[in-house]
């Protein structure tokens, strides 16, 4: 089985996480304290930050794997959620948001019963995390390098430790966003 095929090319990649590029300035766009700068909208703690990881994942298809540019993002202003944008640098990005807890649980075992399911696996000696997203009758499955997911989660946990999400909620911001969406 081949780990990943480059988009638009017929060459095959060597199995394992070498097939998953990551360009994220040390695993995150949060270099130093830049991502932790307070901007006055940090909820109860007054601290707001973001963690972003840009990487390549492999879209699982009938004929093999296709590399897809992807961005994982976490914002302490929405402390329970992560967002993932597939095809990030194309005209057709595909954005999904789901619970950070789901991503963390899926790193250990099959998690999720709805439109998003996440589970760990081994492919030819490399640990990967599969993320399945469903919209209507369409289902897409991607494989991400487990170390990329681990690093991303570790940095989100440094910003907002698990169990402390409620302290980072900015209720005023949430109400404003809900009112803007209903208008």
Word description of this protein:
There is one protein chain. The protein has 183 residues and is α+β, with helices and mostly antiparallel strands. It has a single domain, classed as Transcriptional Co-activator pc4, Chain A (Roll). Helix content is 18%, strand content 34%. It has three helices and seven strands. Strand 2 (64-75) and strand 3 form a beta hairpin. Mean pLDDT is 77; it is low at 1-16 and 18-46.
Provide tags for this entry.
183 residues, alpha+beta, Transcriptional Co-activator pc4, Chain A, globular, disordered N terminus, septation, SsgA family sporulation/cell division regulator, SsgB_sf, SsgB, cell division
For the largest beta-sheet, the strand count, sense and barrel status come to: 7 strands, antiparallel
**CATH architecture term:** Roll
Overall 3D shape: globular
Cα radius of gyration in angstroms: 17 Å
Total number of distinct structural domains: 1
Describe the strand arrangement of the main beta sheet, using strand numbers: 4-3-2-1-7-6-5
**N-to-C order of helices and strands:** EEEEHEEEHH
Helix vs. strand class: alpha+beta
Number of helices: 3
**Quick one: how many beta strands?**
7
Strand content bin: 25-35%
CATH superfamily: Sporulation-specific cell division protein SsgB
Distance between the first and last residues' Cα: 50 Å
The CATH topology corresponds to: Transcriptional Co-activator pc4, Chain A
């Amino acid at each position: 089985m081949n780990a990943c095929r480059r988009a638009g090319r017929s060459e095959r990649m060597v199995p394992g996480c070498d097939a998953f590029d990551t360009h994220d300035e040390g695993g995150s766009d949060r270099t130093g304290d830049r991502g932790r700068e307070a901007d006055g909208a940090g909820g109860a703690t007054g601290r707001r930050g973001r963690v972003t990881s840009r990487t390549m994942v492999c879209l699982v298809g009938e004929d093999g794997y296709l590399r897809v540019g992807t961005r994982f993002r976490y914002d302490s202003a929405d402390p329970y959620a992560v967002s993932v944008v597939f095809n990030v640098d194309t005209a057709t990005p595909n954005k999904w948001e789901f619970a950070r807890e789901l991503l963390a649980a899926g790193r250990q075992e099959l998690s999720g019963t709805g439109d998003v399911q996440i589970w760990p696996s081994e492919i030819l000696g490399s640990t990967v995390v599969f993320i399945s997203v469903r919209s209507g009758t369409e289902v897409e499955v991607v494989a991400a390098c487990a170390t990329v997911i681990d690093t991303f989660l570790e940095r989100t946990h440094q910003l907002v430790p698990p169990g402390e999400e409620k302290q980072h909620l900015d209720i005023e911001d949430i109400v404003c966003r809900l009112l803007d969406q209903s208008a």
